[in-house]
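User: Please predict the structure of the protein below. I'd like the answer in structure-token form so I can feed it into my own downstream comparison script.

Assistant: Understood. Taking the following sequence of 361 residues as input:
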Amino acid sequence: MSNRLFQGLVYQMRDVTNKTIGVVDENAIIIACSDLTKIGEPRERVAEMLNESNDLFIHDKYTYKPFGSKMKAEYAVFVEGTDDLAAKLCGVLTISLNNIKQYYDEKYDRGNFIKNVILDNILPGDIFVKARELHFSSEVSRVVLLIRIVSANDISAFDVIQNLFPDKQKDFVFNISESDIVLVKEIKSGIDTKDLEKLARSIVDTLGSEFYTKVVVGIGTVVTGVKDLAKSFREAQAALEVGKVFDTEKLIVSYDNLGIARIIYQLPTTLCEMFLKEVFKKGSIESLDQETLFTIQKFFENNLNVSETSRKLFVHRNTLVYRLEKIKKLTGLDLREFDHAIIFKVALMVKKYLTANPVKY
């Protein structure tokens, strides 16, 4: 428990009363006091009395009121004086400080609990019990964003992200490695993927434009309750890894939008190699030069439209047709036919996947 929280309230109360007030810990060491010179002083006899009772007691011209857990007093408020006013002040301070303590403990426990759920460090059967204990609603929707630092300066990206999402009761930010930061964001039910990408864009833009820190963001799927947050986290991880293979220019990758890339990423490499051999029976994909591959890319980008592609490439339509015929001769696939184009598109993605050989989670 941070002593600064206690000291802050005690300091504010200093001007309300002309009495010396403060807090001792379970060992009766003064940890907060309106008289700063007394902080750190031991009160040995008080330690014994704390162990004996949780009730109000008086010792050496001071009134004490223990507080903390139900089983054992962890702290005690003390007020100078032994009259009714001192007792009432003790009661008021105890309520205030105990509320601060409960808020702090709950916030700390909630954050650690969420982190353990994300990292699969808690048994599934214990998740529901702990979630109910910490007052997590089973009806609330949340999503996990994984923010990976690509390049940075001396600014703490973690601190920036925490400041962007200051509601510590609803949103949780924590590090899982030197370069990876997790944001668990509470959201409205029915939110669109585009809205989540806008949220991720605000993180990317703030870190990039204001703090010269480049990051990429993976977005998991929206889940309800706490139990499936680990699933959303794994999806955010997969989104970044798949994006690193198939969408190298993208700074924001959503698991929902991975499409066929997600399926390819999950295939065994031996199956992928067999597929390429079957597709390119007449010739290897390696036989296609860079100019031809660039032409294919533009042809796909322009929805297999010969006229539009030739215009974008600044070549004559017949030149493009000649290149497509050359591809057909080398591979046996005519990209002007929809079915052949789909097979070729998938084959290119499979080849890219095999070349990248990504780390899987």
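That's the full token string. The chain has a mean pLDDT of 88.
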